Amino acid sequence: MQLNQAQPFPYNFDLKSTALVIIDMQRDFIEPGGFGETLGNDVALLQAIVPACQAVLQAWRRTGGLVVHTREAHRADLSDCPPAKLNRGKPDLRIGDMGAMGRILISGEPGNQIIPALAPVPGEVVIDKPGKGAFYATPLHDLLQQAGITHLVFMGVTTEVCVQTSMREANDRGYDCLLLEDCTESYFPQFKAAAVEMMRAQGAIVGWTATSDQLLALLQGC
Ligand code: TIU
Q1: Residue range 86-103: average pLDDT?
Q2: Parallel, antiparallel, or unpaired: how do β-strands 125-129 and 66-72 relate?
Q3: What is the 5 CA–ligand 1 centroid distance (Å)?
Q4: What is the per-residue pLDDT across 124-141, written as a single tens digit (0 to 9) for each?
Q5: Ligand 1 centroid to 85 CA: how many Å?
Q6: How far is the CA of 58 from the centre of ligand 1 (A)?
Q7: Catalytic residue among 129, 177, 183, 192, which?
Q8: Active site residue 162
Q9: pLDDT category of residue 180 using cuts at 50, 70 and 90
């Protein structure tokens, strides 16, 4: 398949070897009372992309393609959270503290669950990641290799933090990556705009970008 409108030039992919990767659409970042808000951010900005993400996820499921969800999550004993991460950012609440949705960024807590609108269904992969990138200290690369995946379509939050880090990690591992611009968001609109620009710059140095309507139109024919 060829997504002709992708920037900076058409993106070629085969559905059988492409996975949809949804980064950290968890309550911690999207709902009030979670980690995102404790960092001083307005979570309403991120809620706005949910309908577009939902439309792509539903269309992708219809094609039978692989879906990967990630969550930024730490073990309850914080043994996978280095001081450099724990002590950064001056949040009201730190990772592991008790917040309105349970312990902040801890596996299994209510706030760590993916929002209901995008909840995983049986057969989909869910990766808990202790870092910003989806490949660091996770089984994701091995799993994608075993599934014969060479191309990744990215959605999720936040654009310049976990999405960009994951896309760069994927690019260095040899995956051709496409970012859906209207299915990713930042607490800082100017950071999103800059991240989108820099990823597709220099001849797709990190990857391609497109909008969800462009991908949906292509998937409709499948
Ligand atoms: N703070 C912020 O913008 N993002 C994160 O801490 N994690 C993710 O991006 N998922």
Answers
A1: 89
A2: parallel
A3: 29
A4: 999 999 999 999 999 999
A5: 12
A6: 25
A7: 129
A8: yes
A9: very high
